Amino acid sequence: MSSLSRAEYGKANVRVFRIVRDGKWHHVVEYNVTVLLQGDISTSYTQADNSVVVATDSGVYLKFYIAKISPHILSPEKFALHLGTFIVSKYGHIEKADVRVEQLRWKRISVSGNENGKEGKEGGEVEHEHAFWRDGEEKRIVNVVVDKRKEKDTLIASVSAGISDLLVLKSTGSSFTDFIQDEFTTLIPVNDRIFSTSIDLTYTFQDISIPLPKEEKKKVEFEVVVREGGEGYKGSVWDEGVFERARKATVEVFANDESASVQATLFKMGQRIIEENGGIREVRYALPNKHYIPVNMEYIGIDNLTPCVAKAEVFCPIGAPSGLISATISRK
Ligand SMILES: O=c1[nH]c(=O)c2[nH]c(=O)[nH]c2[nH]1
Predict the structure, then answer these.
(1) Residues whose CB is less than 8 angstroms from the CB of residue 262 and which lie 6 or more positions away in sequence, other chains included
(2) Residue 207: its pLDDT value, please?
(3) pTM for the whole structure
(4) CA 306 to centroid of ligand 1, rounded, Å
(5) Has 204 been labeled as part of a binding site?
(6) Average pLDDT, the chain
(7) Hey, which CATH number is domain 163-205+239-332, 3.30.230.10, 3.10.270.10, 3.30.1950.10, 3.90.1170.50?
(8) Which protein residues touch ligand 1 with a CB less than 6 Å away?
(9) Which residues are recorded as binding 5-hydroxyisourate (predicted)?
(10) How far, in Å, from the CA of 189 to the mean position of ligand 1?
(11) Ligand 1 atom closest to residue 261's alpha carbon, by position in its atom list
(12) Is the previous residue joined to 213 through a cis bond, with omega within 30 degrees of 0?
């Protein structure tokens, strides 16, 4: 005997690009959007009953639709909430929408003079009105789960956000000593080493509750959600500053910390984000320790390791294996 214990489905990685025109001053966002749905859909698996299926293909146009109509499109958190809220309130039998948005990093190109940009200081650089460049593979990540099962007449949304694929490296200011020495230990303790990682950060806000309007339960207006200080609103999920503060805290601690280990630096990063952002209840990092191995060049008659390994100048970056250091830091 067997039974269906969990089911969710949807369309993954729908690519959406949107321009918002403020006269000649354009804003652009590019998102990869994934939405997975749960609800009263089990018969589609167990009885081949497609009458309960919102086709994943429709999911593509639902995303384009909200990208077109949402006044919140430039904020990935609000866009994700708008999309999730719209879906669970439109389809009565869909109880939960799990929305993931990855925002690619398009930044304004700076140019000399002020022909096509905001007025800058004479001879200085100005931001261009409508020209952008991709600033690496880094992504801003948002995960929103909108759930209408938890409480009667209320949608509960959990919101987390963060960063992925932010590659950083420092060439000193990092050591790793005093670790366990036994018959398996080959690593040499060092007071000075390269520290490089690809930052994967997730911070989680307090849950938000969105009251369903009494008369028309099927038609939740997103405006209910964004009303500042609304019921259940306890933090700064709407505050665009959170992302920039969390990013700055992460890279500043990385750069300035005299690191005793990836673990110790990670904890300091998380502590600073919690301290600086009242609406965040939890921070999680996953940091691969990307190894750079000093090269022994004796084979070709060159000394690269004197007076010690820490003074090496030529290194071989290693793709795999890497250490993987992860932790969650929570508000007390
Ligand atoms: O910062 C580090 N933490 C570790 O747990 C570890 N293990 C290792 O081999 N190198 C390092 N570096």
Answers:
(1) 195, 197, 287, 289, 323, 325
(2) 83
(3) 0.90
(4) 23
(5) no
(6) 90
(7) 3.10.270.10
(8) 176, 187, 261-263, 289, 323
(9) 56-57, 176, 193, 262-263, 289
(10) 10
(11) 1
(12) no
